[in-house]
Specification:
The chain has nine helices and eight strands. With about 250 residues, it is an alpha/beta fold. The chain has a single domain (about 1-250), classed as Alpha/Beta hydrolase fold, catalytic domain (Rossmann fold, 3-Layer(aba) Sandwich). Helix 1 links the parallel strand 3 (about 30-35) and strand 4 (about 60-65). Helix 2 (about 75-85) crosses helix 4 (about 110-120). Keywords: Hydrolase. Pfam families: BD-FAE. This is Acetyl esterase/lipase. One of its GO terms (molecular function) is hydrolase activity.
Length: about 250
């Protein structure tokens, strides 16, 4: 692999992404946007996405390891994720892949799973607006132990009140535009990978999302894997191997 090269998509220090490319210089299978977790909190950053990104390029993908503003308000975080995905259109090699119809899959872990599902949808903001028409079409989502039901996550106190911290208050009905559970199903396939021993984000988050999306006619599937919360982003684990297989399936490679 080569890189990563840092690309900025805005003036704030957190508005950047790392581009990882296969070392052989060949055409990548497609692009995987890696969205790290950490309950939307500033002390967690894109370093969490580097081990997955390194594994992805070793398996022939281009990886776009995305950073975004945290603890600046939900609207800022969401706008950054949308802008960060759309910035792929400004990177010459990746823009060419997109123009060729190669897959652009968003892979998000924990709170990153929430952001991955959100950016593949209508991209609505808490104030009722949107981030505008997407410049890059997301072709699939892999949510790893995603926080996909904000209302329930708040009731359960996940992340020590992380949902209320993210929204700036407890969730309410008009937060549905930024809650993946309320927006399900998406127009693209969603694969929810969850460790059966996860004690940080309960597997019920993924189970409930997939059940709702399927009931409403969406293409969503639950994949239960061994291990806990962080095993999903550890390239040494069977859980990560399963994630690689899901990415290949979404890209039509298996």
């Amino acid at each position: 692999m080569t890189g990563p090269a840092v690309h900025r998509y805005g003036p704030d220090p957190d508005q950047h992404a790392e581009l990882w490319l296969p070392a052989d210089g060949g055409t990548p299978r497609g692009v995987v946007v890696v969205v790290h977790g950490g309950f939307w909190r500033a002390r967690y950053d894109l370093s969490l996405g580097r081990p997955p990104a390194a594994s992805l390029v070793a398996h022939g993908w281009a990886a776009w390891n995305l950073e975004y503003r945290r603890e600046r308000g939900a609207a800022a975080t969401l706008a950054d994720v949308a802008a960060g995905v759309d910035a792929l259109a400004d990177v010459p090699g990746l823009a060419a892949l997109h123009a060729e119809g190669r897959p652009v899959v968003v892979l998000g872990h924990s709170a990153g799973g929430h952001l991955a599902a959100w950016v593949a949808g209508a991209r609505r903001l808490p104030d009722g607006g949107t981030t505008g028409t997407a410049r890059v079409a997301v072709t699939g989502v892999v949510s790893q132990a995603g926080v996909l039901d904000l209302a329930t996550a708040h009731v359960q106190g996940l992340g020590g009140g992380a949902v209320a911290d993210f929204l700036g208050r407890p969730p309410r009905r008009d937060d549905e535009p930024v809650d993946p559970m309320a927006e399900a199903p998406l127009a693209v396939p969603v694969r929810c990978v969850h460790g059966v021993a996860d004690d940080v984000v309960p597997p019920a988050q993924s189970e409930a999302y997939v059940a709702r999306a399927g009931r409403l006619g969406g293409d969503a599937a639950l994949v239960a894997v061994p291990g806990g919360h962080m095993d999903l982003v550890d390239p040494r684990t069977a859980a990560w191997d399963r994630t690689l297989g899901l990415l290949e399936g979404l890209a039509g490679l298996s």
